Amino acid sequence: MQQTLILLKPDAIQRRLIGSITARFEQKGLQLIGLKFVKADRALAEKHYAVHKGKPFYESLLEFLTSGPTVAMVWQGREAVQVCRNLMGLTDGAKAPPGTIRGDFALSVQNNLIHGSDSAENASLEISLWFKPEELLNWNIVDGTWVS
Ligand code: DGI
């Protein structure tokens, strides 16, 4: 079973899309094991986007991520990292195919609603940035054998 970090970024909250986006992960069959409402500070945003340090859009990306609350979630399931990336769609909302979250709800490159870890290794790093171990819940999902 794989775990991945999903963030609903400040534009998703401002646009009242928390429910519509979260529904897609539930409907796919993934299991939610961590959930919180967080206003990231600069230090957290810097760690989260460390890989982009030095790029022209870095400062604006940090400003965006710290501009308001985010919903941080950990989803678990078979191939959860790639499954979530597929549900999200391409980074640029204008290029993301219809049927994906960004394809259906986003037009911008930066304000693209959602973050999802891009590898299992990054997922475990990012989960540890946003969650304490005791904030992740191990619970028995009753239809698990039907879904995966
Ligand atoms: O994993 P993704 O979020 O799909 O994309 P990423 O890890 O390459 O980039 C992280 C975020 O940085 C992305 O969601 C939006 C922003 N970004 C990436 N490339 C550009 C960008 N923002 C601007 N303004 N211009 C870019 O070229």
TrEMBL record:
Transmembrane segments: none annotated. It catalyses: a 2'-deoxyribonucleoside 5'-diphosphate + ATP = a 2'-deoxyribonucleoside 5'-triphosphate + ADP; a ribonucleoside 5'-diphosphate + ATP = a ribonucleoside 5'-triphosphate + ADP. Its main location: cytoplasm. GO terms for cellular component: cytoplasm. Keywords: ATP-binding, Cytoplasm, Kinase, Magnesium, Metal-binding, Nucleotide metabolism, Nucleotide-binding, Phosphoprotein, Transferase. Pfam families: NDK. Its cofactor is Mg(2+). One of its GO terms (molecular function) is ATP binding. GO terms for biological process: CTP biosynthetic process; GTP biosynthetic process; UTP biosynthetic process. Its EC number is 2.7.4.6. InterPro entries: NDK-like_dom, NDK-like_dom_sf, Nucleoside_diP_kinase. The active site is at H115 (pros-phosphohistidine intermediate). It is found in: Cytoplasm. SMART domains: NDK. ATP binds at K9, F57, R85, T91, R102, N112. Gene3D superfamilies: Nucleoside diphosphate kinase-like domain (3.30.70.141). It is an enzyme of class 2 (transferase). Signal peptide: none annotated. Residues 1-138 form the Nucleoside diphosphate kinase-like domain. Homotetramer. Major role in the synthesis of nucleoside triphosphates other than ATP. The ATP gamma phosphate is transferred to the NDP beta phosphate via a ping-pong mechanism, using a phosphorylated active-site intermediate. Belongs to the NDK family. This is Nucleoside diphosphate kinase. It comes from Telmatocola sphagniphila. The gene is ndk.
